[in-house]
Amino acid sequence: MPTRRIVLASALAAAAVPPVIVGAQTSTAPGSDKAAPPTTVLALERRTLAVNGKSASVYGIRQPDGTYGITTEVGKRFRVRVENKIDKPSLIHWHGLAPPWQQDGVPGISGPPIPAGGSADYDFPLGYGGTFFMHSHEGLQEQSLMLAPLIIHDGRGRPARQEIVVLLNDFSFAPPEQIYKGLRKGGGMPSMAPRGGALTARMSGMGQAAAAAPDLNDVKYDAFLANYRTLVDPEVVKVEPGGEVLLRIINSSSMSNFHLDLGQLKGELIAVDGFRIVPLVAQNFPIAVAQRLDILLAVPHVPAAHPVLAILEGERRQTGIVLAAGQAAIARVPDLATTSSPALTLDLERRLRAAEPLKPRTPDRVCTLNLTGEMAGYIWSINNVVWNKDVPPLPIAEGERVELIMINRTPMPHPMHLHGHQFQVVEINGKRFPGAVRDTVLVPPGHRVIVGFDANNPGLWAFHCHLLYHLEAGMFTTFKYV
Ligand SMILES: [Cu+2]
To answer: How far is the CA of 381 from the centre of ligand 1 (A)?
Structure first.
């Protein structure tokens, strides 16, 4: 098969130049920067992962030395070549970054996917630091772990001695296509057996305001992973007694919201979704799908093992890593918490305050986005429109302050993500406040959440629920200002 390369035009050379597909012999696209070859190569590949002693075929995004994802620095350029070594087209989205829109990695929106055996070059400036991640936006690949951390250092907070990235994932031995088919049919597949039969009945009231208990965890997963491992054999990270660590928690699950539980330790939350907040101390932090938490942790002086756990919302199932301070015995951590956790709420969200809020400004444009759905057939939508390529983009204009009113009219929580921008949470259920700047916000059932953002990165941008099967089923739309 001839190797093809999609060369994405350099942002420096010309911000609005669309990607150019060229043959393998031509290594440089018109207008790209010939003097600047990519510095980092990321291979999209198949790999085998052992989960609780059973092996599974999953995807991975790795550098030639085996490193998953990228760690880089603010001020550098994001100069990356993605090599597609799987047997299907793929395209990687840089979640939380603000690249030129053609480099955002959403097939059919930002550009075409990279064909099997092909590669794509990316080059754009990194204007801010933080904890981000990368994942495929093609098909159901992210469900099979086509994802990795993307860390941009900016010397944030106090100089922690040690940084620990914790990648959280839900995992099923069933292929995602089978899980999705089961959801569309209203259950009945083994992976969802405990919940399947009740799906239609439970959701018959959908479309009206959600009453009573929220509906959580559509898919019954086989395992929950922290850095690709379960609590049967968790990652144990050596830490210095009396030292300080920076935890970078990434919820790259497909469908699972968690409560991050620090046990006896208190953590200082300093950033959400990469963006700094006024620091806040707690032992327990909600983290919805696609969100990130930066937490500073003072390690006690006494030698001890400190589990850092993520408990599935509404359930007892948990995953995590263990911090080992000094010569401490490491006890087995059960994969069930002692009690069921509650559903995620916005109690913490209401208390978050951006360290650098948006300048107060009357919005130039307000978009109302009803989060809607139909459980019969597992159809999810925005303003009752199921996404397809003929849905016109929502128009906005460069320079505008835009506010998005998200009203969840379904019984399920939806973590809503905007590409290419950061937004500030400015209102929850009618109460205005200068909340966190972030890229993904949870809208629980029956809630009304307003976010504001500045239209400062022209292009065609995706906006969607980050529960991956909701996204696949149509809870997706676009904004356009080009
Ligand atoms: Cu959703």
So the answer is: 9
